[in-house]
Specification:
mainly beta, Sulfite Oxidase, Chain A, domain 2, five-stranded mixed sheet, five-stranded antiparallel sheet, 21 strands, about 10% helix
C-alpha cells in the first residue's frame, strides 16, 4: 500500500492531520478523499526537460535566458528555410518582437480564460487542471499584418541555448486562425489560477493548445516562425510519438486500501479527462483477482461494467475560482448564467466514484474506463499508446 506525503495529502484534498501521517491509508481516510477542482500551481506534476531545467535557473542566468517578466520577449518572423518542399518563401508584412507589457495590453482587449487538464502523452496519470488565461495566438499573429505562403506555425521556448535540448512544436495555420464556434482557441498564456504563470509551469509565458497533450503547450515560449513547410517539426514526433494526437477521454484510478475488513465499504474513485470526443460516463468492472489480463483475453468480452457517479458542477463557482474571476467570463460557460454550457467540460477533468458494499472475504481487482460521446469505451477507437496513454487501469485489494 502506498504511503501519503503531506504534499500528496493536500493535493488529494485530505484535510485531517491523521490522514497525513505516514502509513497505510485507513478505510476512513480513503472514504473522505476528494480531488480539488483546480490543481494548485505548485502541485502540478512536472515533466520539464533540460539540463539544467529552465525553471531552476536563478539570478543572472535567469535574466540572460529572458525568463523574467522584465526581460521576456516573443520573436515572430517568417521562416527563411528553403528546400524541396518549400519553393516559395512565406511572406509577412512585418516581423514582431512582443514584450511582456505589450502582451498584457493585448490581453485587455482579447483575453480568454478556460479550464484545461494537462496530460502527457506517455504518462499514465494526469498532471493537473487549471484555469488558464492569455491571448489567442491568432490575435498575436495579426500583429504581423498581411501574410502569404504560410501553411504552418512553428514555435519553441528557451532550452539553455543548446540545439540538442531544443524542444519545439507546431500547428497548422488553420488550427491557429480558424477556431470553430464553441471550440477553444490556441493561446499564449500568462496566468494560471488567477496568478502570473510561474517559472515551473512554463512562465512567464507559454503556449496552451486546449485539445492536445502537454507536448504541444510549449513552456518558456520565446520564438514563433511562420513557415510554408506543411510538415510538423515536433520534437515529440521522435521515438514513434504521434505529433497530432488529441487529448484522450480516459479514466484514471486512485489507489485503494490494500486490505478492508469484511462488512466495510470499499470506495473506488478517480479522475476522468473529457478529451476531444467528450465524456459520457465512467464505469467500473469488479472481479476476483487474477493474473494480469492480456488485451486478447476472452474475459474482456464478458466483462460486467457498472456505472460510476460523476462529480457534479460546483454549486458555487465563486468558491472554486480565483478571487475576482467570474464564471461568466470563462469560455465554455454561459455568459448570462455563469453555468457550464455542457458537463463535463471538454479538455477538463472531473472526479468519479462508486462504493462497493457487501463483499465477501477474498481478493479482488477493479478496473475503470471512460466512455465518450460516440459510445466508444476506453481505449477505443485507437488503442495505440503512442497517440496517448489511455490503457485501462486496475487496482487490487483484499477483503479479510
Amino acid at each position: 500500500m502506498n504511503e501519503l506525503t503531506r504534499r500528496q495529502a493536500v493535493k488529494l484534498g485530505i484535510g485531517s492531520m491523521a490522514a497525513m501521517k505516514a502509513g497505510p491509508l485507513s478505510a476512513a481516510a480513503i472514504a473522505t478523499k476528494t480531488h480539488p477542482f483546480l490543481t494548485p500551481a505548485d502541485d502540478f506534476e512536472d515533466v520539464s526537460r533540460g539540463n539544467p531545467k529552465p525553471h531552476t535557473l536563478v539570478g543572472e542566468a535567469l535574466i540572460k535566458a529572458r525568463l523574467t517578466p522584465e526581460t521576456w520577449k516573443l520573436e515572430i518572423s517568417a521562416d527563411e528555410t528553403t528546400n524541396a518542399i518549400v519553393t516559395q518563401k512565406p511572406q509577412i508584412q512585418r516581423p514582431v518582437t512582443l514584450d511582456y507589457t505589450a502582451l498584457l495590453e493585448l490581453g485587455k482587449q482579447h483575453r480568454v480564460m478556460f479550464l484545461k487538464a494537462m496530460q502527457c502523452l506517455n504518462i499514465a496519470q494526469p498532471l493537473g487542471q487549471g484555469l488558464w488565461e492569455g491571448v489567442p495566438l491568432r490575435e498575436v499573429l495579426k500583429l504581423c499584418g498581411t501574410m502569404s505562403n504560410v501553411r504552418r506555425v512553428y514555435f519553441w521556448g528557451f532550452h539553455n541555448d543548446d540545439p540538442k535540448q531544443l524542444f519545439q512544436s507546431s500547428l497548422s495555420y488553420s488550427q491557429v486562425m480558424e477556431t470553430p464556434p464553441g471550440e477553444l482557441p490556441v493561446f499564449v498564456a500568462y496566468k494560471l489560477n488567477g496568478a502570473p504563470l510561474s517559472l515551473e509551469r512554463g512562465g512567464p509565458v507559454r503556449m496552451v493548445v486546449p485539445w492536445a497533450h502537454g507536448f504541444k503547450s510549449i513552456k518558456w515560449l520565446q520564438h514563433i516562425r511562420l513557415t510554408n513547410d506543411y510538415q510538423s517539426n515536433d520534437t515529440y514526433a521522435e521515438k514513434n510519438n504521434d505529433p497530432e494526437s488529441h487529448l484522450k477521454t480516459a479514466a484514471y484510478l486512485d489507489d485503494v486500501t490494500a486490505q478492508v475488513a469484511a462488512g466495510n465499504p470499499v470506495v473506488v474513485s478517480g479522475l476522468a479527462i473529457s478529451g476531444w470526443s467528450g465524456l459520457s460516463h465512467v464505469e467500473y468492472w469488479l472481479r476476483p483477482a487474477s493474473a494480469d489480463l492480456k488485451d486478447d483475453d476472452p474475459a474482456w468480452s464478458t466483462a460486467q461494467w457498472q456505472h460510476c457517479d460523476l462529480g457534479e458542477p460546483p454549486r458555487n463557482w465563486s468558491a472554486v475560482l480565483p478571487a475576482g474571476v467570474s464564471a461568466r467570463d470563462i469560455l465554455g460557460f454561459d455568459a448570462k448564467t455563469g453555468q457550464p454550457a455542457s458537463w463535463p467540460l471538454r479538455y477538463s477533468m472531473v472526479s468519479y466514484s462508486t462504493t462497493l458494499r457487501g463483499l465477501k472475504p477474498g481478493k479482488y481487482e477493479v478496473r475503470a474506463r471512460a466512455v465518450d460521446l460516440n459510445g466508444f469505451a476506453q481505449p477505443e477507437p485507437r488503442s495505440i499508446q503512442k497517440t496517448g496513454k489511455n490503457g485501462i487501469q486496475v487496482r487490487r485489494f483484499e477483503v479479510v
